[in-house]
Amino acid sequence: MAIATHPDLRAEFPTLDREGIVYLDAAATSQTPRAVLAAMNDYYAHHRASVHRGVYAVAAEATDLFEGARHRIARFAGAEARNTVFTKNATEALNLVARGVAGPGDKVVLTEMEHHSNLVPWQLTGAELLWVGLDAQGRLDLDQLDGFLAAGGVKAVAVAHVSNVVGTINPVADICARARAAGALSVVDGTQAVPQMPVDVLELGADFYVWTGHKAYGPTGVGVLHGRREALEALPPLLGGGHMIASVTKEGPRFAEVPTKFEAGTSAIAEVIGLGAAVDFLTRIGMDAVREHEVELTAYALEQLSAMEGVTLDGPHAAEERGALVSFTVEGVHPHDVAEIIGSRGVCVRAGHHCAQVLMQALGHQATTRASFSVHSTREDVDALVAGIKRVQEVFA
Ligand SMILES: Cc1ncc(COP(=O)(O)O)c(C=O)c1O
User: Fold this and answer.
1) Is residue 29 part of a domain?
2) How far is the C-alpha of 171 from the C-alpha of 56, rounded, in Å?
3) How far is the centre of ligand 1, averaged over its atoms, from the C-alpha of 189 (Å)?
4) What is the reported pLDDT for 144?
5) Per-run averaged pLDDT (10 residues), the chain, 397 residues
6) How many angstroms separate the alpha carbon of residue 331 from the centre of ligand 1?
7) Is the dihedral of CA 257, 262, 264, 267 positive or negative?
8) Are residues 297 and 386 in the same domain?
9) CA of 248 to the centre of ligand 1 (A)
10) Which of 172, 193, 330, 355 is catalytic?
């Protein structure tokens, strides 16, 4: 537990200064380290200018901060800066990819555990969707994937790296390799993976890999799309406007090179700079240490909750096979009531379908309660969760 109990680390998060707050909702959005706030403030206070266009000193500084952040963000995920695109969030990045890749008459393989962000955009394309199911521990049925791929004609395989509900870590390198061998593009939603574990996009071999800043200790308003160069070059832009063109005539635009082609309009400059500070923050801790800490804490939570009568957990039994969250139901109590009673004690957890209604249907739930962990979480936080669930059971006894 060395990293979270380190006083300097908890002190990095101003929200945690609030009396009685136990924040267990990092899977929804993470708290913001002071270093991220400082980086954004520094831009606004000292280097405020638009990027890429100005020739004066302040504009050059802003551009350096912005493009410097792109380099560090790309390196953090094992990608190249020139193949790293900024979007508004993961959802926008997935819409950009889905819209550009698939259309009516195409076949796209999805999994039943996808967040709506990696599901509805594919539904909007009009493509035929093929669903890979899960076993009792929330692991994907790869034989089913192979069956879909063997039948031929699959345009893309879209899969979460880590489930935001059952927590399963999917074997995405293997899935991307199977997709590639079948001539299909691979699209990985890494939203829950990048903040939690070392991720090397090139090593994973994904054609497209997406994540979001606000779950990775960065600000809201910035998402990230890494892509294989040729795949990005073949992808049409989602938005047209300023900055994304090389030239424009009455006949039409000639697009700028990737990644500029996908970044129409004024970018979320402060947010990208803030996300740069967030990956520096994570790099200072070390992603191996982050993962080690969160596995230990997840194992502790699984052990505590599985020992409680009337509490049912979803997802893989082993902490090593899952991301840093536990999703559970309490017998006879609606998940919203669970979250409300726990929340009234200062413990912040999420209840609902977690934007994964197809998964809820597969699990046979309407909703679950979810507690998720981050670098600042401690065993005492898990104990507060357990005490909260005991209180729920007393109230509803
Ligand atoms: C697995 C997963 N994918 C995508 C998203 C969407 O992220 P954003 O709302 O930042 O676009 C989320 C957010 O909950 C998520 O958990």
Assistant:
1) no
2) 48
3) 8
4) 98
5) 65 93 97 98 97 91 98 98 98 98 98 98 98 97 98 98 98 98 98 98 98 98 98 98 97 98 98 98 97 98 98 97 98 97 97 96 95 97 98 96
6) 28
7) negative
8) yes
9) 35
10) 355
Q: Which ligand 1 atom minimizes the distance to the CA of 220?
A: 10
Ligand 1, residues at Cβ distance < 6 Å: 89-91, 115, 117-118, 160, 164, 189, 191-192, 212, 214, 223, 355
Q: 156 near 186, Cβ under 8 Å?
A: yes
Q: 79 and 178 share a domain?
A: yes
Kindly state whether residues 97 and 128 are assigned to the same domain: yes
Residues 274 and 140 in one domain: yes
Tens of pLDDT along 291-303?
999 999 999 999 9
Is 355 one of the annotated active-site residues of the chain? yes
Ligand 1: residue whose CA is nearest its atom 16: 164
Distance 212 CA to ligand 1 centre (A): 7
Are 207 and 349 in a shared domain? no
Q: Which residues contact 15 (CB under 8 A, 6 or more apart)?
A: 21, 23, 31, 32
Report the C-alpha gap between 271 and 222 in whole angstroms.
6
CB of 313 within 8 A of CB of 328? yes
- Give the structural domain span for 378: 2-24+287-395
What is the structure's pLDDT at 114?
98
Residues 65-86 pLDDT 10s: 999 999 999 999 999 999 999 9
Are 52 and 72 in the same domain? yes
pLDDT for 1 equals: 43
110 lies in the same domain as 151: yes
